Amino acid sequence: MKLSAIVLCYVSFFRFDDLIAIRWQDLKFSCTHLELYVPDSKTDQYRKGETIFVARLGGQFCPVALIERLLTVGQYKTSGPGSLIRTTLVCPPSQRLKANPPCYDTVLSWFKEAASLLGLNPKLYGTHSGRRGGATGAAARDVPDRLFKRHGRWRSDRAKDLYVRETLQSRLATTRNLGLQEDIPIAQLRAFEAEA
After folding, report:
1. What is the pTM of this model?
2. Signal as a keyword (predicted)?
3. What is the domain extent for residue 106?
4. Which CATH number belongs to the domain containing residue 96 in this structure?
5. Taking a C-beta distance cutoff of 8 angstroms, is the pair 74, 85 a contact?
6. Cα–Cα distance for residue pair 194/168, rounded to 1 Å
7. How far is the C-alpha of 153 from the C-alpha of 59, rounded, in Å?
């Protein structure tokens, strides 16, 4: 449950409220992707809902495969409609899913635990880390702004840009692309001085 929730937040740019609003019966699987219907969101001012498309990636962290496994292991079809991410009742030697979604503090603890397992400072991570991390990853890989803004359900560039943390390499790209590291011919420098 924890891994599925964290990966889903990252690839869908979800915050806590978006995550717990997803209902398992609204998911649509295909051979290439998963469609997640978000019924309402902080960014959805008219409450018309939005569909998020998540690609099938393959590998152990494929978000679509993780959700499919969660639905199978959790036996969702026997428990009736409800939230995809649910509270787990642990009764050794087994666990079972409850019908209600986890509270904010529980999901927050999942992010902090994941940060600790990765050797990161858990104090720096929270429920917005998936949204911020996904947005930063998309920006670092040059996903076109229009697509990445739509995926995150942002209406303005300003709102989207608040979530992106620039990498050191991208911040250094400005000075690296000014042409100063190349040999500048003396004649070009003299021409520049003459114009000044």
Report:
1. 0.79
2. no
3. 1-195
4. 1.10.443.10
5. no
6. 36
7. 27
Closest CA to 25 of 67, 87, 81: 81
Nearest-CA neighbor of 7 among 44, 59, 50? 59
Number of neighbouring beta carbons within 10 Å of residue 137 = 17
Structural domain total, the chain:
1
Q: Which amino acid is at 128?
A: H
Distances (CA, A) of 110 to 33, 101, 104, 105, 113: 25, 14, 10, 9, 5
Q: Which residue has the tokens 């939005």?
A: 50
- 8 A C-beta contact, residue 167 and residue 140: yes
**Token pair listed for 111:** 């992010």
Q: Parallel, antiparallel, or unpaired: how do β-strands 33-38 and 94-97 relate?
A: unpaired
With beta carbons less than 8 A apart as the criterion, state whether 132 and 163 touch: yes
Q: Are 89 and 95 in contact (CB under 8 A)?
A: yes
pLDDT in tens, 12-68: 999 999 999 999 998 999 999 999 988 877 766 666 778 899 999 988 989 999 999
